[in-house]
Write a structure and sequence with these properties.
The chain has 232 residues and is mostly helical. The protein has two domains: 3-159, no CATH class; 184-229, no CATH class. Helices cover 75% and strands 0% of the residues. The radius of gyration is 19 Å and the shape is globular.
Length: 232
């Protein structure tokens, strides 16, 4: 098989692998667009935000913080904290991508998400690994990017036509619940969720949505502590 055919096969395989996850992201993209408009973010800026940030959880947090009038530095700090997990993804893939030039690594870093990482992880391990496996990650990342952008644009368009009397803010909360609950497997996960939830309620009176940051920090500390005490 020629190198170009191998690259093409890897790229297509990445698209196929991420397709179910990309389809599942469509409702979240729609909800983001609607909530961004409801939060007062201009349509053009909301669409640009989806392209620049390209991170669903961060985009949802931005809309909530903007709606609450949170100062810019706190918004940036919150987004940085919620996206720290991407550093772990990068560290896991770095040895396999070390041979690529800077342009390749920058493009793959931009396209790296929970979904593309999950879709391509097997390609970077064991017998599935190959010299052109980075094309698999490129296919997965681009496939998800295209679906996400179209979903966000549709949501922004839909949101601009929704009457102000329709209260859709709670849709963001439901979205986070739908994202988090399927990920709760280990006891440390449940401990982190419980502590974060209690902290969020207890710190609700804090200004600028600081309860979100406090809850995230408390949840992470609880999960780490529980994980060390109970290796199971």
């Amino acid at each position: 098989m020629s190198p170009s055919a191998t690259r093409r096969a890897e790229f297509v395989a990445g698209l196929v692998a991420v397709a179910p996850l990309a389809a599942g992201s469509v409702p979240f993209g729609l909800i983001y667009g609607v909530l961004a408009v409801k939060a007062g973010i201009p349509a053009g800026l909301a669409i640009a935000l989806a392209a620049i940030v390209f991170a669903g959880s961060a985009q949802f947090m931005i809309t909530q913080l903007v709606a609450a009038g949170t100062p810019g530095p706190l918004v940036v700090a919150s987004v940085a904290a919620i996206n720290l997990r991407h550093a772990l993804y990068s560290a896991a893939l770095a040895p396999a991508l070390a041979h690529l030039n800077g342009a390749w690594r920058a493009a793959l870093a931009y396209l790296l998400t929970d979904e593309s990482y999950a879709a391509s992880l097997a390609r970077f391990e064991g017998a599935a690994a190959g010299p052109h496996r980075h094309w698999h990650l490129l296919g997965a990342g681009l496939g998800l990017w295209l679906v996400w952008q179209l979903s966000c644009i549709a949501g922004v368009t839909l949101g601009s036509g929704i009457p102000p009397g329709w209260s859709l803010e709670f849709a963001g909360t439901l979205t986070f619940i739908a994202i988090v609950v399927p990920l709760l497997r280990a006891r440390a996960d449940w401990a982190a969720m419980t502590v974060a939830g209690v902290t969020a309620v207890a710190a609700q009176a804090l200004p600028y949505k600081l309860a979100i940051i406090a809850a995230a920090g408390a949840g992470m500390l609880a999960g780490m502590a529980f994980d060390r005490r109970d290796p199971r």
